[in-house]
What does this fold into?
Amino acid sequence: MTTRRTMLAAMAGATLLPAGFAHAANNPKAADLAGTPLKEIARRKGMRFGTAIANRKDQFGDAAYRALVERECGIIVHETEMKWQQTEPAKGKFTFEQADEMNAWARDKGLELRGHNLFWQPEKWLPGWVVKEDFGTQPGKAVEALMRERVRTETAHFGNQVVSWDVMNEAVDPETGKMRENVLTKPLGAVEQVDLAFRLAREYAPKTELVYNDYMREDAGSARHRAGVLAMLHELKKRGTPLDAVGLQSHIGSWDESKKSKADLVEWRKFLDEISGMGYNLLITEFDVNDRRSPADITVRDREVAAQAKDYLDVTLSYPNLRDFLCWGLADHVSWLQTWYEAPRLDKLPMRPLPYDGHLKAKPLREAIAASISAAPARKAMA
It folds into this structure.
C-alpha cells in the first residue's frame, strides 16, 4: 500500500509533478520547476522559501511531512510554539520545550528561523494572566516593565538563530482601520505601545530583522484595513521606530463577499508602492488560498486556486525588497483553514489551500508558486 512515507521517499529523487500539469514532462521549463525544490528556485533569485510548521503529530511529528519541509524549504516559522501564550502560560513559568525541539532540528537541517511573535494585539490572544494583571498606580511603567521582560526573555532564549522577528502582529482593526486597544495599549497609547515594542526588540535583538505582520489583503473588502496599516506605518516612520519590514500574511482567496477584479491588484500595487516608498522591506509570511467559493470539482478548484495565486504572486514578488516567502503550511490536511469558522466552505468539503494535498502530492498551486518565483526579478545577494 502506498503511504505518505513511501511517496515522499520517491520524491527524494524526483518531485511528483502537479496533478493537471502533465504537459510539464514535455516542457523543459515546467519540468525543471517541478523537479527543483522551491527553496532552490527561490535561492536563484536571492530569496528564501519556507513554511510554518507546528509541533504536532501531523506536522513535525510526521516523518514524511517533516521530510517534505526539509526538501522544499530554507526557512521555517513556528505556528504557535514561540507565541507568548505558549511560552509563558502562567506568569514567570516558561515552556520553551516544544519550540526548542523544532529549533534543534532546524539547526541540524540548515533551516533558518523566523520568530513569531513577540506581541499579538487582539486581547483574546494575549495570555490570560496578562489580561488579568493588576498594573497598580503607575500602569504605564508597569506595562513597560512587563513588555521589557517579555522581549528580553524571549530573544535571549532563542538568540541569534532567529533571523527575523514578528515584533508586532495585527495591531490594526480590519473593520475600522483604527489601531486595536488592549490592556497593554491603554496605559501607554496604541501607537506608543507599538513603538516601544520595536525599540525593546532592537535593544535586545540588535542584529535581527524586525517586522510588523498583518493580514490586510488585495481585495476591496480589505481597503479600510490597508489604509489603517499605512497610517500607522507613517506615524511610526515619523517617530523613528526601528521597524525594518512589513509582513504580508497573504491569506488570499474568498474571504468576504466582495467581487474580485483586476482593479484589486492595481490597488494592491499602490499599497506595496507606498510601503516600499517609506523604505521598508516586504515579506510574504503566511501564504495560502481560501477556496470557499470555488466549485467542488477538485480539478476546477485547483486550477482556480493556482490562477488566483499566480495573479497575486506575480505582482507581489515583483518587488525586489521582498526576499522571504513563507506558506502557512505545505499540505492541505494541516491547514488552519480546515477548521476556521469565519470563512468555511458552505458545502463542508475540505479546503485545498496549499501547494500539496493531504497525501503530499504536488498540486497546480505548487507549479504556480514555482513559476511566480522563477519569473520574479533577481534580488541583490544577501549579506
